[in-house]
Amino acid sequence: MPDDRVSGLRYVGLAVPDFASERAFIGGTWGLQEIAADTDTAYFAAEASSAACVFRLRKAADRRLDVIAFAVRDDAAVDARARRLEAGGVKLISSPHRLEGPGGGYGFRFFDVDGRTTEISSRVAERPMRLLASGESIPATLTHVVLHTPDLSKTVAFYEEFLGLRVSDWLGNFMCFLRCNAVHHCLAFIPGPVSFNHAAFEMRGLDEMMRGVGRLLKENVPLGWGPGRHTAGNNAFAYFKTPGGNVLEYTAEVARIDESTWKPTIYQPSAEVMDQWGTGTAFGGGPQKLGHPVADPGSWVAPPV
What we know:
Layout: E1 8-16, H1 19-29, E2 33-37, E3 41-45, E4 55-59, E5 64-71, H2 75-87, E6 97-98, E7 106-111, E8 117-122, E9 141-149, H3 152-163, E10 166-171, E11 175-179, E12 187-191, E13 195-202, H4 206-218, E14 223-229, E15 236-241, E16 247-252, E17 265-267, H5 271-274, H6 280-284
Parallel strand pairs: 1-4, 5-8, 9-12, 10-17, 13-16
Antiparallel strand pairs: 1-5, 2-3, 3-4, 6-7, 7-8, 9-13, 10-11, 11-12, 14-15, 15-16
């Protein structure tokens, strides 16, 4: 039977009122490369990734999550996923069609169980990439997105059934990490009103992550939490706030999974599990410093592009 499961995370799209400041930050300070733009939308790539786009930014009246985009293996998988979703009563925003964004491709959008706009696509053209040099403190790729949901078990079940994601680990009954390939997690969910928590960008290595942390601190970018090392995923982390109030993460050494042997672990929440090193709270203040979730005005409202 052909595999039509989601195979990768393509990009995340956010919208902000102060488009100019956020655009300058993402394409400058944060270290992504702007590859296309018009008057109110900009697209960004990571230099060490062949993905056509890893981040999209749009000007809007309210700060919101616009879209999360995933890859499947081919056009047949796109069509199969669309049929599967529609048969399951999921609301499609569009039927499979030719896409117009960077890299083109073939895909469609739908609302997930919480009303987030989600995209499935195939045949998106890759872009030239390069290997980052030792010490380059810019993101290598987009690695995961973390979201708030009011019903954790229902949301996890939706992504397992309709996108084919697999549970990697749990943090008690509070947080679930889901994967679509060998990377430990492409999505994670925690309780709260439907909203965006953060997006994470993996660096070349730990040294490059720490150089990036130092560079951002020198540029007075607010550090919310870190640097430290999580237990689930075993990744090093540092969380920052953008000018528009969004949380982004520099991460490194995210665990890779062997599908044939991996067994999910339920970690009991503790300071040591959240941060093995114990440095994150001391330096950055802890997750509470990142702010409290506020219901996203974009829920059940598809973006115009």
